[in-house]
């Protein structure tokens, strides 16, 4: 019996870890993103506009993160991204709940949001302190 104790514990821990993964789920291949509305959020020095994104739960969207600034910013929303279903090809764009957007760049993600209230911030040094915080309301 003792031989099985450690593998069983390892399996249990692995199973628990996956429940709290920051990785987004993959949207069903049949999801109709072609007719999904495009929702824009603009990143500026130092704000998100709009500051609160309001989305409809379960409705596919194209989330366009538009960096209007001369420097890079991030769209960091780990709880939000852990709850969405995202188009498979775009899942690698999200790293630990963060999307990096270079100066003047736009990053688009096709995803299906899950109901909830989520925080978003820019994690670049001092940006959130200077006001780069916001929220995502999905209902
Ligand atoms: Cu920033």
Report on this model:
- By secondary structure, the chain is an alpha/beta fold.
- The chain has a single domain (22-138), classed as Cupredoxins -  blue copper proteins (Immunoglobulin-like), CATH 2.60.40.
- Helices cover 17% and strands 37% of the residues.
- It is built from 2 helices and 11 strands, in the order αββββββαβββββ.
- Strand 2 and strand 3 (47-49) form a beta hairpin.
- The longest helix is centred in the N-terminal third of the chain and has 18 residues, at 2-19.
- The termini are far apart.
- The model is unreliable at 8-20 (pLDDT under 50).
- Bound molecules: copper (II) ion.
- Copper (II) ion binds at residues 46, 73, 122, 124, 127, 132.
How would you describe this structure in keywords?
single chain, 139 residues, alpha/beta, Immunoglobulin-like, six-stranded mixed β-sheet, three-stranded mixed β-sheet, 2 helices, 17% helix, binds copper (II) ion
